[in-house]
Amino acid sequence: MSRSDEHFEVFFRSHGPALLRTAVLLSAGDRHAGEDLLQDALESCLRHWGSRKIEFPAAYVRTTMARLAQRRRLSGRFLPLTNPEGSRVVDEMVQVDQRDVLLAGLRSLAPRQRVAVVLRYWEGLTEAETAEAMGCSVGTVKSQTHRGLHTLRRAVGPFFPDRARPTWKPVAPVAIGDPR
């Protein structure tokens, strides 16, 4: 085993689980598709591993996954789940249901929107870092994130009604000359 292969193996042991979680989210919660995405990204990165000095290897792999995920078409449609009023469910079950709804909501996003939302809000990257990872402009990241969050809020709205609807109430228009 060469020195670069050993370095790659050490890197994967320490960063593999986090990269897999990101890959699964980029694949809209599909674990098998996430594993495939991570494997494809690692294969691509391994080709250049020994020939380049890679300063931030986790970011390098994450960028590769983001670009691959944008090119893939993932199947699956969102079916909204509802929580019947007044039902008492154990907290853990509610968390599992919420996770499932959010993953289904991620599936409803277009690939570029999904990548933008996952990198910005799951990975915590800045707009500039996300733009670099996606290979696009900061403006594109902003618009894809905005559209993705809008779609995601609509998708999860039936399950999270208090978070999906605005808390303010519109004020009735006042006619000119009204003494109010």
Q: How would you summarize the topology of this molecule?
A:
Elements: H1 3-26, H2 31-49, H3 57-71, H4 91-107, H5 111-122, H6 127-134, H7 138-156, H8 161-164
Helix pairs in contact: 1-2, 1-3, 2-3, 3-5, 4-7, 5-6, 5-7, 6-7
Nutshell version of this structure?
The protein has eight helices and no strands. It has 180 residues and is mainly α.
Unreliable sequence segments: 74-90, 164-180
Gyration radius over CA: 21 Å
- Give the % helix: 55-70%
**Distinct helical segment count:** 8
How is the biggest beta sheet arranged? none
* Spatial shape: globular
Average pLDDT, rounded to a whole number, is 76
Number of strands: 0
Strand content: under 5%
Overall SS class: mainly alpha
Terminal CA distance: 82 Å
Q: What is the element string, with H for helices and E for strands?
A: HHHHHHHH
Attribute tags:
single chain; 180 residues; mainly alpha; 66% helix
